[in-house]
Amino acid sequence: MAGLKGENQIEKFRKIAGMLVSQISSFDGVAGVILEGGLTRGFADKYSDVDITVFLSEKTESLRKRIQKMGADEQERSSVDVDLSVHSLKEFKKRRWSEIDRWDYSHAEIVYDPRGEVRKVFNQKLRVSRGFWVRRVAVSAEYLKWYCCPPRMDVGTVAEAWIERGDLASAHYCLTYSVDLMLRIVFALNKEFLPPQKWRIFYSYCLKWLPGDFEKLLGEAVMIKEMSASDFKRRLDALRKIWRDVVPKIEEETGMTLNMLSKYYVQRVLRQN
Description:
By secondary structure, the chain is α+β, with helices and mostly antiparallel strands. The chain has helices at 10-24, 38-41, 61-78, 89-94, 99-106, 117-126, 130-147, 158-165, 168-189, 197-204, 214-222, 229-254, 258-269; strands at 30-36, 50-56, 82-88, 109-112.
């Protein structure tokens, strides 16, 4: 995958996955199989797993154990970590998906689904309303304004308050938290679920819409060169430059100004009239 360095062992991983999928899909009672993680990313190294999820038509303990033993045997044979999960499709439908689940399954590759049952479940559980994205933008933007990007420059922020209080670690931490808030907004503006934290910055570079000089400015915002007020200001300036490009996009995508979003936050999120 572009941008990732190190030895790419994807062909080895795909060969293992292909062998396992071929065997598993031949069993009666298997409704579907998906690939996740490095197998769909196109990059797998020594830190990666062969991530496979199997769905059963019915909850059958003997079949579940048989499939998981196949994964354990292959892991021992190949010395590659095999993460082979087995679920009853009926129970999987009822399960509440976390944000990470939504991201994982939105990037999964369905490799066996003879009756289209897995695709149907995924389509249902990955469908969200426009309000889902608006709410995410509203909440994250409200916090971002408090922490480092106020509506007016004469308004103090949480991060700057820590500079005056003399706690540089807290000030820098507030900016680090603000970086994550910014990422949440940028992903929401692209109508994309949030990846796990370990992949969040990397996958942000792949989004269809990004603020100008995003990768460079994000790098500046993340990096702490020294525990000083001047370095704090450098990071803060980078975040505010990103924000200046984000604000017009927020208005374009939500149809609301920041003031309107603040009212939305109070009325729809805090439920205050």
